[in-house]
Structure formats: C-alpha cells, structure tokens
Amino acid sequence: MNSSTFPLFLNLPPELRTQIWRDALPEEEQPALYPYKRGCWHPRWLSPSDEGYCPGPHPDIWMEFRHDLLDNIQLELPLVFVNHEARSITLAWARQQNINIRFCESRQCHIFTRPFNPNCDALYIMPERLYDFYSETCDRMEEPDLFDHFVTFPYSFFYYFAVHEALLPADDDPLVDIFREFSCLKVLFVIVNTPPEFTDHELKVQPQWGPERPEQGRALCWDPNRQCFDWRDGKYFGDEALYRRIEEGSKKLIPGLVSEDIRSLEIRPVCTVRR
C-alpha cells in the first residue's frame, strides 16, 4: 500500500477526522514579511469628535501610515483541494483567521490572502526602497494639500521591522530616523541569508516569507539606562564576523534611541524562509 494514502480515513469518526484536518492547517499567525511600498502615508484631518483633536486656528492634521494599504500575502492552503469535508473545514478556519478569498483571473482559481497584522507581522524595507522609505513623508508634505500646514506624526503602531544585513552598518540617516516616525518599534529583524523576493503586479498579492524561529536566535537588547546594546544568548544564524558587523551597525542607532527615549528594542539576526 502506498504510504502516502490512508484508505480507511473516511471510516474514522467525524470528530476525529475534523481534528486531523484542523491539525494539518498552518500555525496561527505565523509572522510574515510585508514589503514596504510608497503610497501608504496618508493625512487625516481631525474633527472635534476625534481623539487627540486640538482646537486652534489651523487645521489639525495627522500623518498616518496606513498598513491596510500594504499588499496582502498569499497563503498556501492545499487542504481546500482534497475533498468537500477538508474544504469546508479550511474555509471555516480561513474566515476565523481574517483571511480573504479572491479569484485569480490569470490562474482561474481562488487564492487565499491575509492582510498585515501589526501584532505579529514585520514591515520589510528592501535595500532598493530604503531611499523611498526615508523620503516619502517629506515628499508627501510638499504636495499642495499639505504645503504650508503643520502636520503631526502620532504613534504609528508598527512593532516589527525587517531589513537585510547589507543595510548595516548604515552610514546615512534612514534607519536612524526610523524611531521618529515609529517609536513603538519593538524588534528589528536583520535578514542574514538571501533576501526574500517580491514583485509588483496587478493582484497586489505577495508570497509569504517570514523569519525562521526568530525566538531561538541571538539578539541585541537595548539597555536604556546604560545606553548600549547587550547580546542575549541564542542560536547563531551566521558566522561571528557577521554578528560583529551587526553589533557595530547597531551603534549607529543609539542617537535615535536616546533622543526618542526608546525604552525597549531588540535587534534579531534571522534567516527567512518561504512558506
């Protein structure tokens, strides 16, 4: 008998079959990388009913990063093609997980996509888009609707960022300024293997890439009292020379951490995998 088949499966009790199908689904909320793209910074004109509104003679404008405008990632859910029972369980699970179901015209099939979740996902800044990331807010504020207005940058609730190790050490300002607009940042993933590949296309859907077991790796932890980074023990994802470069690069972030009074930050070297 072919070891990849189990002809008696349908004779199992329905409850047991259901549990087996559910156990075969992906782990919930696996951290994923979402590539940065221009066009997500949007102004919001506050009204008196909005929290944070400050009355005055000039418009009260907040500049916000709309993570809902990032491309979704595509999830691979092969169970949906097994049989009617597996499909029903998979679709029910997808609805519970805030997963969207879309029809792909080019492939003539349905695909599953997931929007950005700031509680677990990371905004990935590709090396070729670092300048765009750095300059977009300034460019946006020079457009006619905002020119000559005072604009406030409230907290943008991004807790996880990712960059390739080629950007460290950074001799210019972009990563130093990251704390001015994203002071809630908790973890900076530094990708040490081949960077993930993303492309622009009409579907606005990207493949699912994510850090592989980031909690197991070594990490640089910010100590605000001593104003320095310390290594936390863990697995190496590269050679010691690479980790020394990351440590030296992290020192260039210290002025931004101090000026914005950041109390907690981890820099985690990671390998990324496609799921």
TrEMBL record:
Taxonomic lineage from the root: Eukaryota, Fungi, Dikarya, Ascomycota, Pezizomycotina
Name of the protein in question: 2EXR domain-containing protein
One Pfam family from the record: 2EXR
Annotated ranges, domain 2EXR: 6-123
InterPro entries: 2EXR (IPR045518)
